[in-house]
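Here we describe the complex-level prediction in full. Unlike the single-chain runs in Section 2.1, the two entities below were treated as one system.
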Amino acid sequence: MKKFFLKVVAFVGLALLPVADLYAEVYLSTEQAREVLWQSTSMNPVTVVLTDEQMDSIEDASDTRVYNDELKAWKTETGGWFIIDQVVGKHEYIDMAVALTKDGKVKGIEILQYREAYGSQVRHPKWLAQFLGKDHTEYLELDEQIKSISGATLSSRHITEGINRLTHTWDQVLKHL
Amino acid sequence: MLATQSATNHIKRCKPLLGTYVEVSVSLESDDNALLDITEYVFSEIQRIENLMSFHDPDSELSYVNREAYRHSCPISKDMEEVLTAALTLSKITNGIYDISIAPTLVRNGLLPDYLPNVDDEQANWQDVSIVNGNISFKRKALLDLGGIAKGYAVDRALCMVENLVENITVNAGGDLRMKEWSGQSVGIKASNAKGLKSIIRTPMHQAALATSGNYYMDRNKNSIIHSSTKKAVKDKRSVSVFASSCMLADALTKVAFLDINLMPIFNSYGAKAISVDENGNIQDLCEALENG
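The structure predicted for the assembly as a whole is:
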């Protein structure tokens, strides 16, 4: 029921709100992140689809919203994990790569894409969540001479929450696979 | 991203460190692996400084100082000594407008964690902090927070460690940034209004380092810029950006520019430049603003 509601919110959001300017910054590719985090350790993709019960249980344990029931995960030959995941904050929407050891400890984190909404739209996690897995967003075109951006410091606590969600996902699901 | 033998290769990485997003870009005539190795050094140096200077980590050197320096003199690392000495020098020059002992107010306002000894925020100030021969002691109970200045120091340290190995490098820790080849470069500064971010304003780099302070990411009733004497939060919709030779100095001076525009003359003595960006994206040079009344 909760997921259905979220989908309705996302759809209504798409229909009513103006298209956002999302400023996007692209960092390492998935392959580069895998090389940095796991070097030459071989790994195989594992299909992970969370049940409603698992999603609720992970939400309760991590106190963090689970937006996506599918996990993009690879299991390494050493029993560790390589996961591509999204984090939706109040201001930012991020793709990240996370390596977990065979004991579920965080081995490394790499941000792959950072997006931040500009313009006067209401920015809210649910609003940003509508862009999950979509590529049609209109990105803000920056002056090409701008290579770096300065601004007030944005806390990375949503990454911390996302990592917490993934370690609980490991504890409840991945370690049994 | 694929390298050839003769062309300059670029790589840009980002990791969550120092409580924010830290971006490192390097350019070098070499392959991806060499560039990735260099960025690894940079991130590990930033991690090392975070481990020393984090207020949030009970095991950091700063937390040790905050727990113990009132009771006895504590030996501190060279890094800690450098940052604290710079902070205390700035406190002296600004008559205490800049003060890293403001932490109890930030704890009370919920911006910093509350696990250290309870300290009355009216009690101590920077003059109660003494550093002699690599040892620190507090004359009264105090809590120090190195937040911004440590972030700037981490950027400086990380960049200086590898700058001779690369053609160019930029380290950007959540808006505190420093470039090796900064001359002739442009940067974007985020402008905000009451509803949130609005645009990115382009401006030339005036110095190697740039830091910005503003309140637009904070929750409505929270604010991290506190007046040292009144303990009141500064409510200002502008953001202030400072260009300086080091990122540590740039970050510290953003607070000074926010708190007292009459202190702008000290910016000249540091060779620094301060600008503000208002809700409509208008840029104002704060040194000129003071001269023009």
